[in-house]
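re the bet — no i am not wrong, look at it urself. input seq straight from the record:
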Amino acid sequence: MTGVTAVTTLWLGACVDSPEPPVSAATSAATSAPTSATASTTPSTTASVAPSTTASAPTSVAGPPAGSTGSGAAVTFAFAGDTHFAGNLAGRLADPATAMGPMAATLAGADIAVVNLETAVTTRGTPQVKQFTFRSPPAAFTALTKAGIDVVTMANNHALDYGAVGVPDTLDAAKAAGMPVVGLGLNADAAYAPWETTVKGQRIAVLGATSVLDDSLVRSWSAGPQQPGVATAIDGDNAALVAAVRAVRPRADTVVVELHYGKDLTTCPTRIQSTLATDLVAAGADIIVGQHAHVLLGGGYLGSTYVHYGLGNFEFYSANGPTAETGVLTLTATGRSVSDAQWHPGRLVGGLPTAYTGAAATAATARWDGLRACAGLTAAPR
């Protein structure tokens, strides 16, 4: 983290298969508006659709117009994928200052660094009825803070692994460590609320939401008016998240949305992903990034918005083959103008992200570039 001059904070994974098929690169995205802000518990079975490669942010969105450069200063962002301290990684929290792997320095070098923390942080509760449950002590937030991470999203399918009782514990631990959390809250207003900060005179807003929850847990895990939980955009019902983006757009120079979305082990985006990205572009998002599939997906531009469909695992207890491919995505935003997308590739070794070098790094970056082909995104903004 570098250059944060003022912060206004609202305190507020691996592995459930997403039901919808992957995207076909030959078709274009649906843009139908969601009809309700209430999460659906019925999996989508609609045919796959890829996002348009010619979309552009609409000029009707309130706030700075597309292309606005805000204060004129460039702000750097760094994003990484699924992070937790389960299994063999639990012992690393004995020394939180060194708990994160060697690639954490790439995150810390950005003005704003963001990861997905995929675990409940509580000593209470009981495991939910699901295949995988993760729990970490409060030292998890200390480790992230020491690593230079500025904000975490916890809108994912593991934040309530030990029940709703863990939500206030998680938020209290985050506050004590000075770590802002998005996508998780004591009610819906808090879960959908952005983290807002000012860097180099640029007003930044970061929001989080998940498109992935076990069907049997959607109702009990989705944040409601008086119910703690996660911010959701389930099965194409994107209205609440779209409204949150539209609400913050007038007071932010750069709007970032962090999503938990995708289908396990699938390297092309699903229809739910592409439709959600299209809806968020229309709402005024400038950067849309996410994770869940435990493998890498493609990134690029949807109009003038930078979209990444899957950052894979970052610090994760169980990974091999494609699931061990990792990296850090860095971007530069000057207001609504997003540029200089760079992939810093690595591999998980003992669960820790370790950077590739030399020819291995060149080959890994080429593989990452190739993932854009089925994502319906472009290498440059339009």
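see?? The radius of gyration is 18 Å. told u. also Confidence is low (pLDDT under 50) at residues 3-59. so pay up
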